[in-house]
Amino acid sequence: MPARLRTGLVRSHTPTGGRADPARSSLNESTLLYPDLTVERAGLPGKTQQVMEFLAPGALAVAEVAAYLRLPLAVVKVLAADLITSGHIVSRTPVPAEQQHDCDLLERILHGLEQL
Amino acid sequence: MGSSSSDVIARVASTTATSVKLVIGGRFGVGKTTFIGAVSEITPLSTDAVMTDYSRGVDDLDADSVKTTTTVALDFGRLTLPSDIVLYLFGAPGQPRFLPLVDDLMIGALGGVVLADTRHIEGAFDVITRFENAGLPFVVAVNAFATAPVYDDSELRDAFALAPQTPIVSCDARDRASVKTVLTTLVRDIIARTIPEPTT
Ligand SMILES: Nc1nc2c(ncn2[C@@H]2O[C@H](COP(=O)(O)OP(=O)(O)O)[C@@H](O)[C@H]2O)c(=O)[nH]1
Ligand SMILES: [Mg+2]
């Protein structure tokens, strides 16, 4: 027999609808960064060079680069944006807003979880 | 950082992978890091996010706008699915003053999990409100602490003022299978919300 919830606390309910702003979602913590090793990276400025060398063995997400290099997330976002602009990095953004209702993709996530 | 450390770092192997961001919220100590660690293929990592506060509270009388920056550690883990998906699970800091960071973390996220502890149900209110206001689909996972009272789901649902379709599930954040069930519940719910909606 479950206990009675006696706290009397009830969350006030203030829905406003809407979605997180998709315009700002192009480069976030989970964006995957793929190095393009065919682009010359000698001469890249300091920290961009460091990020690029770190990524050379293979792709990682923005947050992973930040954690391993002990750089703040915001710094890695700026460096990654520079490297994307210069063609050294190709990025893949986590499920873009327009795909968040893509049933095929959602089914792939579900089936992937079930297969674990 | 020496290159030797990067040699042991597990890279994202697929060049076609889609990453998916999930946000795990709840009060400090509710089990967010435990939850992430239970399914993560990497030891959960921590990275610094910077939050800018424009005021320090009502009793700060000597300035109309005091700007301070606070560095907040974000925990996260990674889970590669056999279907070419890489899930990233981010723990949202639980202290109310860090709530603005939760808003940042929701950007680009597919869904959320609110971990709740029945000894402090009010600890989940703020993050539920944040998720709702952003329109982020989420599930409430009631974490099973030994000394925590057990309530009917319907009572908890009322206390949390959950929308009727929002799932509420029990969970043991230390248990991989239990965490997996929470995640599949979330994805099933997102699918269920998607099917009846027109694709505009
Ligand atoms: N009994 C029990 N203890 C848990 C559970 N989840 C987490 N804990 C413990 O609660 C404490 C806080 O967990 P942590 O993951 O650090 O919380 P966070 O602050 O939300 O990241 C740790 O000592 C965990 O071992 C759970 O499901 N059951
Ligand atoms: Mg934690």
Describe this structure in words.
The complex is a heterodimer of chains A (116) and B (200). Chain A is mostly helical. Helix content of chain A is 38%, strand content 9%. Chain A has a 3-stranded antiparallel sheet. Chain B is an alpha/beta fold and 200 residues long. Chain B contains 6 helices and 7 strands; from the N terminus they run αβαβββαβαβαβα. Chain B has a 7-stranded mixed sheet with strand order 2-3-4-1-5-6-7, sandwiched between helices. In chain B, strand 6 (138-143), helix 5 and strand 7 (168-171) form a beta-alpha-beta unit. In chain B, helix 2 (32-39) packs across helix 6 (176-194) and helix 3 (99-106) runs parallel beside helix 4. Chain B is globular, with a radius of gyration of 18 Å. At the A-B interface, helix 1, strand 2, helix 2 and helix 4 of A face helix 1, strand 1, strand 2, strand 3 and strand 4 of B. Bound molecules: guanosine-5'-diphosphate (GDP) and magnesium ion. Magnesium ion is lined by residues 32-33, 75, 91 of chain B. Magnesium ion binds at residues 32-33, 75, 91 of chain B. Chain B: GO terms for molecular function: GTP binding; hydrolase activity. Chain B: Pfam families: ATP_bind_1 (PF03029). Chain B: Belongs to the GPN-loop GTPase family.
